User: What shape does this take?
Amino acid sequence: RQSGGGGSGGIGGVAAGMPVNLERLGIVLSGYTERISLDTLRPLPTFLGVTGPAFCIAATAFAPPTKKLDKDAAEKIGSRLRLNFAYFLTNYALILAGTAFVVALMHPSMLVLMGILFGLWHVHFLLDRAAVSMEYGGVDFGEIFTTGRRSFVLTILTLLVGVFKCLVPTLEVLAISGVAIFAHASLRDPQHVETCIDFGGGGGGRRRANSDADEEYVLDGDSNRESNGGGGGMMSNGGSGAGSGDVTKTPKGDRSGELKRRDVV
Assistant: This one.
């Protein structure tokens, strides 16, 4: 009896926890949907890493998050994915929607059947709300096609169309858009994105090599402008000036001049 009571209690606990989990999932999804808007849609040059009037992708726009598999590799990959998903969320949603639109056009029979099902469900709910009499020729079809029977038949038809007509296109959309989005999110270098105008880099202010490199090259234009009072971008290094395009070579052990990553949301 005690074990039986424990089992029923466990089932009850799972049933009681399901609404909480669904509510939490709804909150998370609503947070993402609120961030998808035209205001957060990033320009195509920023999304693809295009620089210059020739509309060519920069060589440093895409780079692997790590060059070697060590204990910090998973953390670097996760950080890269979080940064890019936070910043390019609307662009990724647009890719998903565009892929779904193109794949749907490739399956016209699916669109026709979905339109028919939508019409049947609309008529079904309309008959319930309006309480329309279905009597014809002395036969009351309302007693034959009751609300429960109509719902059951439409549900079966919807499941059949969903499995045999919508399942394959849905998997195609998820596969195509998933590969494209994951590839971009894992390879788009946030350090290069920071040089774009959206990050306040002035289109070419700072650049750093991959963090796994033995030596890092920092083009720190912002700090130079601050030290010179917003002047012509000359670098002050021990009292000697250099052009704004000079590059300071920073050893791996010296992190004083390293460009710090900003979490862009």
Q: What stands out?
A: DSSP finds nine helices and eight strands in the chain. Strands lie at 50-51, 56-57, 135-136, 139-140, 215-218, 235-237, 240-242, 248-251.
